[in-house]
Amino acid sequence: MTVQHPSHRGSILLEEAEVLGHEAWPGEQYILRLHAPRCAARATAGSFVHLTCDPDRPMRRPLSIQHADPTTGVIEILYKVVGQGLAALARAAKGDRLSCLGPIGQPFRADPARPRSLLIGGGVGMPPMLFLAETMHEDTAAAYKPLVLLGSEIPFPFMARPSTLLLPEMPDAVIAAHPHLESLGIPSRLATMAGFAGCFPGYVTDLARHWLGALTPGQRAETAIYACGPTPMLAACAQVAHEFGVPAQVSLEEFMACAVGGCAGCAIEVTTPTGKAMKRVCVDGPVFDAAAVFPPAS
Fold first, then answer.
1. What is the mean pLDDT of residues 150-176?
2. pTM summary value
């Protein structure tokens, strides 16, 4: 089944996805692996799925895609239990089938003219950053140089490891890294206020500010920011981008009912060249220009 939309939105596909694995992490965080070949074939960094959590619950939940493999048809989702719907999803077992609507939304638009890419993820906003980092890594023609900064106030949903990838712009003691990114040769660093070993002791946006401040003006001219996380974190990312004069894109987290643009329940106000406008996070986003959503204070 295909739900057709105007050409600028593409197509959103509906399929029965099989649960291949469901991994629990501290803090009621889960990594869900699904066989959803139609979604995997079209997914891009920043897109999401609208997933049925339980046959007895008609309302789906929007969940960001962390990884998609068109060859195997596998997608991977990271989520944290918040509410009864995701609590029901946490009980899904290998072999179960879930109704999956996706991929949905406008993705991040990587800029090859600014290959020095700063990817910032907070909490369950980490998945699009991991997906985007992999996408940049695979695009060898563009020569992207992604740096991934991840922040969490609960244990990270992975086993952090000391990085062997040197970053002279980082404080010496900040060495904790994401293991998969490290294995790909993509530098990453972690930030927390919870005192985890090897992490930057502060907000992830503070770490971003530290890194940007260590760059030369020429290096900042090659830099762009991409971010996903809670709204206060995204507002802080927009402020950091404004301070250093670099462009930024943000992926918004928003409640939504239909996720296909029909109900407009996820509409937000953004600034456009012609004035204020209402945009739907599901199909007009979830990725927007940061300054359009969080305009700098005059």
1. 95
2. 0.94
